Amino acid sequence: MFSFSPVLKTIKQILTPHKGILAADETPATLGKRFAAVGIENTVENRRAYREILFTTPNIENYISGVILQDETIRQTTSGGLFFRDILQKKGIVLGIKVDQGLAPFNNSTNEKITQGIEGLDRRLEEYYSMGARFAKWRAVFAIGTSTPSKECLAANTHLLAVFAKLCLKRSMVPIVEPEVLQDGDHDINVTFETTKKVLTSVFLALADEGVSAKKIILKPNMVVPGENGPVVLPEVVAEKTVECFKTIIPESLPGIVFLSGGQSEEAACINLQAIVQYGKQCPWQWSFSFGRALQNSALQTWAGKKEQVDGAQALFLRRAMMTSDAKEGEYQTF
């Protein structure tokens, strides 16, 4: 009988129909910004309590196949002393881990960034694997500007993405390769299209240079949308531009594409995801999601640090997970 490798088995689990990834890998600093918006103090206990709300929500395993954790979170427990990682695994949810260590200025640039964390990554992956993590994520960001992304920044970041992927596969972990073209700016969707095309071309060339097979990774890209202050377009246009961009670059052997929400609202992220799924029905890849704010925002606003709002927050989180699952299957209806 043919036996899948551990990596391919994990990919199959992550890409289970009707399910997607919850990105709960915000750093303490990033989560602190979101807490501040709803009046929550950024403490270890508050971050722990918030993650407990999400991970102990009943029935999320019906819509969530994997959760991306962060170094702090993979070590935390519920108020009852159970590790979050054990809670999730008992639900049949695959554990993932963010392994990059944030951004630094690239060559002293004010608007280009290089991702940090490749040093010591192999050792960290070994530790996370021992904790139960079976996939890992590395994010590189690319800003759209008059002279960005530069060739040098593009080459440096995509090389790191490829080295990360190679190291993950060495540890039998699935690499989630995340090249994000940022939404900042007033550019139109055609500019995003061309930049995304350039970025993805560089990503797959770098992966090939490192001997990383496309069939053993999952891609986490941005949708092709206008800049946040650019001309608004219909979801059908987002779908056409995204799919047509990908068709020219991404190998057919890639098993799946899990979109980041990239600062879009819960509603916009789902509507655009559904439009892409419907337009791209004939594409060889499985379409899915790896959303952070677009799954969590309503729950966080409802909880706002109040114990009496835990049940309401969990209900909203489950609802958003279900609706995002519907969008993935082309069955989304507004809240």
UniProtKB/TrEMBL annotation:
Protein name stated in the entry: Probable fructose-bisphosphate aldolase class 1
GO MF annotation, one: fructose-bisphosphate aldolase activity
Superkingdom: Bacteria
Family to which the UniProt record says this protein belongs: Belongs to the class I fructose-bisphosphate aldolase family.
Enzyme class label: lyase
EC code: 4.1.2.13
InterPro entries xrefs: Aldolase_TIM, FBA_I
Species per Swiss-Prot/TrEMBL record: Candidatus Magasanikbacteria bacterium RIFCSPHIGHO2_02_FULL_45_10
Catalyses which reaction(s): beta-D-fructose 1,6-bisphosphate = D-glyceraldehyde 3-phosphate + dihydroxyacetone phosphate
An annotated GO BP: glycolytic process
